[in-house]
Amino acid sequence: MTLSISESINLKAIFSFKSLLWKLFGVTFAVIAIKGFMIPNHFLDGGLLGISILIHEFYHINVGYPLIILNIPFVILGYKKIGKNFAVHSLLSLLFLGIIISFLPVPTVTNDHFLTAVFGGVFVGLGIGFVIRGGGVIDGLEVLADYTYKEFGFSTSEIIIAINTIVFLIIAFFLGLEKAMYSILTFFTAVKVSDYVVDGFEKMISLSIISPNPEQIKSLIVNDFNKAITVYKGERGNLPGSYGIKHDCDIIVTVVTRLEAHKIKKTIKALDPKAFMYVQNIKEVGGGITSKKSHH
To answer: In what side-by-side order are the strands of the sheet with 230-239?
Structure first.
């Protein structure tokens, strides 16, 4: 949800123990990835972290400096487009990053390229994900992509992929094609891990059910699992060997979390073994009575 610029800063939420703990965990994991895996093996990631490590490779300066400086414009953009609380959360995260990356000694964990790509990505993903759960960011490209989507219609994924394609081409030119390919593996590992950390078991999915006993299924979902449903009027039949034989049916749709979907599917199967079910991933949920925790 987009916040108003005129919102008041919620210091209690920003400096809550839980929020600070998420930020500290996140920044620490990111620093372990940077100093323990990526820099010793001359590996890069996508986004501002990849650009910052690339600057470090060229000029041998503390990687925390370009990472913080590059993030500042996106924090300002986030302040204007998302809200004051988001900006303060992000500045606090960057402050933690600057302190921890400067003073936390991290030995080289491995020199194996594959392990560096995979586990470097895992630790980066954990770091970014935990910081987002704490309300901030340490890679501001998401803010730029969200703004560009609203202004020009390009999706967040399209913007991030376009920017990172340029980064990986630069890596390939200066550090070699192999390093670029490993960096792509690191990036995609980090994306998957951070998505899971942010969404976790709370990720919303759409569960659709077609059953010869629709009233029982409706009652089960609404009354037993306390979930809202939407019912579409459809047509079932038209099977191979009996094309043309068809009849009206209800298509029952509900939006639930991963864990809830597993329990609901199992219960429906026990109630009606002939029920047909399918699951669809949902990119975003808003409105209605469906609720989801906000990380900002």
So the answer is: 230-239, 242-257, 204-210, 276-281
